[in-house]
Amino acid sequence: MTLLKRSRIVAALALAGVLAAGVAGAQEMKFFRIATGGTAGTYFPIGGLIANAISSPPGSRACEEGGSCGVPGLIATAVASNGSVANINAINGGTVESGFSQSDVAYWAHSGTGVFEGKGAVEKLRAIANLYPESIHLIASAQSGIKSPADLKGKKVSLDEPGSGTLVDARIILSAYGLTEKDIEPEYLKPNQAADLMRDGNMDAFFFVGGYPAGAIAELATSEDIVVVPIAGPEADKVIEQYGFFAKDTIPGGTYRGVADAAETLSVGAQWVTSADQPDDLVYAITKALWNDNTRALLDSGHAKGKMITKETALSGIGIPLHPGAERFYKEAGLLDAGAAPAK
Fold first, then answer.
1. The pairing of beta strand 98-102 with beta strand 263-275
2. Pfam family of this protein, just one (predicted)?
3. Is the distance from CB of 137 to CB of 272 less than 8 angstroms?
4. Which of 172, 213, 223, 291 sits at 20 to 30 Å (Cα–Cα) from 258?
5. What does the radius of gyration of the chain's CA atoms come to, in whole angstroms?
6. Which domains does the chain possess?
7. Which of 17-31, 53-67, 285-299, 312-326 has the lowest mean pLDDT?
């Protein structure tokens, strides 16, 4: 079932609930937006799965009756966006209730360092859960001759849109290999747009940070010979040493058509974050719904990265305070000592 169809079903259930419950039922509805990323990436489909799992509009059947196991009266929606930085800015500005962010970007935002230096710390940023590792993809056309990030010099390279975590990490990778944006022909496009240009011979390489397989890359590989460029060696080790949120990772061979060999790379954690202003009881209920058996089944069957979203790793790599509602759930589940920062 497509996300569009799921969204229509959720909307229909919401309308049915309003008609069945009357005005009082309508007043009990709660809306909760999840800012994700571009539609061609991993954030958006994962956001759609989670939104459907935690939603339980008025009038829907109870979990024990075979219906939704979500939060009663909640209608959650996944919203496409420019990515991590934009999502945090939207949460801070109150235009969305929650969003996905790379672990490094969330830390920099909360502490007012890194890409948020001089912009003011987003002190109310809070974590709901760590979701899955995001692999740094550097995709090049086979004819470009690019075999290492060092080979990007003089090439036309897309770094993703302003406001994305990918752009932040792409700049870090370039710097590790002694390059800046002045050494390449930079473009600032989402991976699907960069892939379209690569098909036409107008793009040598592009960065993407997200779970594999990424839809835009998988589609590109069906019509274009591509290379998953390794990000490894002393330069990658330097990045890990300098930035604690990066870890070594591998994109397995066969992930993308025509790419038989595994590619060493780096990864960061994809995390679900919100504001301290969100009600404790609501975030507690949402966190509880995220980790129930119904959601587990949806994640396992809905996306290749879904199986990596587990309660056991929900607190891994979180460098910002937990939301008190989420903290309460993890305490009850006996997981709080698994590396989480305490709520403030």
1. antiparallel
2. NMT1_3
3. no
4. 172
5. 20
6. 3-133+270-332 (3.40.190.10), 134-268 (3.40.190.10)
7. 17-31
**Which backbone phi and psi does 310 adopt, to 5 degrees?**
-130, 150
Q: Which two tokens stand for residue 128?
A: 């709901």
- Predicted confidence (pLDDT) per residue in 174-200, tens digit: 999 999 999 999 999 999 999 999 999
What residues pair up with 207 in beta bridges, in sequence order?
138
Using CA atoms, how far apart are residues 270 and 331, in angstroms rounded to an integer?
22
CA–CA dist 52, 273 (Å, integer): 18
The C-alpha atoms of residue 303 and residue 190 are separated, in whole angstroms, by 20
Looking at the DSSP assignment, which residues form a beta bridge with residue 5?
Answer: none
Residue type, 179: L
Residue range 238-251, pLDDT digits in tens: 998 888 788 889 99
* Sequence letter at residue 24: A
> Which pLDDT does position 64 carry in this prediction?
55
Q: Is the pLDDT of residue 66 over 70?
A: no
